[in-house]
Amino acid sequence: MSYSVAGQGKNSSGKRRIRDLLAQSDNRVCADCSAPDPKWASANIGVFICLKCCGVHRSLGTHISKVLSVTLDEWSDDEVDSMIEIGGNASANSIYEAFIPDGVSKPGPDARHDQRMQFIRSKYEHQEYLKPSLRMTSTKGSANSSSQQPHLEGMVEFIGLLKVTLKKGTNLAVRDMKTSDPYVVLTLGQQTARSTVMKSNLNPVWNEELMLSVPHNYGSVKLQVFDYDTFSGDDIIGEAGIDIQPLITSAMAFGDPEMFGDMQIGKWLKSRDNTLIEDSIINITDGKVKQEVHIKLQNVESGEIELELEWLPLDQ
Question: Does the chain have fewer CB atoms within 10 Å around its N or its C terminus?
């Protein structure tokens, strides 16, 4: 099915503007801990942040911090304009860190997760370091209760990030005349990540990275493949469940993977309860915990997907 590439050109222009902003000297380190080379941003706050601080920002909820990857996510025009208008880390920190009291230290690149959590929540959620005239106050309850009790409703605590490298699809189902325009959607809890559309291709090669935050009470990742259609609803052309517990359990059991050489540390076994084509091996490779997954799509006449999972803990 043919489709317009005008939107792709607009997205490329937006990403180029974000990369230009990221190249400014004050944006080359994380706004919250000064770690070098941040690859994430809070689009509504207007700061660039590192992977570890990104996890804390996500836990605050999108009503406080809308987190996007500089390289992996699609940015709307409004999100790009908001970042450009704020101007980056120096401008935002001149507001959010205007009055850091004595005795409060900004976390460094090697700070623990709980230290980052405390500082970032104080900085953005409770706005404790703003100029007093800019702070937002609650009109509900007593002054003491609103200042002492953090607002936890809607917050989700994340334990790490799951990087999914979508490698390729094989023998996907036909939904347009003789072919399909496939793309993949991954869902974990309330989060979704979507790949690019591969035009007229039943054996697409994506080699595309997608990212999901993993909450404490995580479940399986739902993988769905769709056929893009310009003029009507997209057709689903297969789905599968991906059990991420073996990966996370193995990773946590070994701790810091950089302390070990390349080795196998776990396995997700092929069984009647899943659609694995073969056992899925979990390895430490070059100091990273990775898992190769080759899975058959369900509820469709044909189709396989190959991908690689990588576990990125927030507390290392």
Answer: C
